[in-house]
Amino acid sequence: MEGEKKVVAMEEEVKEEVVAVDVSLKQLSKKLDDFAKERNWEQYHNPRNLLLAMIGEVGELSELFMWKGEVPKGLPGWGEAEKEHLGEELSDVLLYLIRLSDMCGVDLGDAATRKIVKNAVKYPAPSK
Ligand SMILES: Nc1ccn([C@H]2C[C@H](O)[C@@H](COP(=O)(O)OP(=O)(O)OP(=O)(O)O)O2)c(=O)n1
After folding, report:
1. Which of 20, 59, 91, 113 matches a 20 to 30 Å C-alpha distance to 11?
2. 33 pocket-lining for ligand 1 (C-beta < 6 Å)
3. Best of 57, 62, 84, 85 to mutate for ligand 1, by most ligand atoms within 8 A of CB?
4. What's the pLDDT tens digit per position in 13-34?
């Protein structure tokens, strides 16, 4: 029971911190680096393991949409708990993607920005 109270208190603390920030990829990357260092998990965070972990999380994300038929934009009919779960699975994919990029020496923000420019050249908008 004491342990449970501690977990609830920790979650409240994290919630307060999370609400306050408009977070950047670089900030998330730093948090992930600290998280791994504090647990001595750097030894496990090699590119292959992170890629497999991310694919596992993509599977968990897919499960939320499985057998649902059409899912319209905005997810009408989904409950709050389901939407919160969706946010967690999307986050797991994002966090592993950022960590994977870091462990590969790729600046994801820079690479994604460049890719958007490249996409615009490949698929020009119709002129008005
Ligand atoms: N070696 C690890 C293990 C976990 N994580 C972090 C990244 C993910 O955001 C989250 C994944 O944790 P779990 O493996 O416990 O997966 P879930 O949160 O999806 O739990 P479950 O699979 O029980 O639904 O934790 C990490 O950075 N490195």
Report:
1. 59
2. no
3. 57
4. 666 565 556 899 999 999 999 9
Give the position, in ligand 1's atom list, of the atom nearest the Cα of 44. 1
128 band by pLDDT with thresholds 50, 70 and 90: confident
Backbone φ/ψ region at 105: left (φ over 0), alpha (ψ -120 to 50), beta: left
Domain limits for position 114? 2-67+81-122
Based on the number of CB atoms within 10 Å of its own CB, is 17 exposed (0-12), middle (13-18) or buried (19 or more)?
Answer: exposed
CATH at 42:
1.10.287.1080
Is pLDDT at 1 greater than 60 in this prediction? no
| 92 CB within 6 A, ligand 1 | yes
Task: Spell 34-69 as b/e; 16+ CB within 10 A means b.
Answer: eebeeeeeeeebeeeebeebbeebeeebeebeeeee
In the block, residue with structure tokens 């958007």:
116
Number of domains in the chain: 1
Query: pTM value?
Result: 0.88
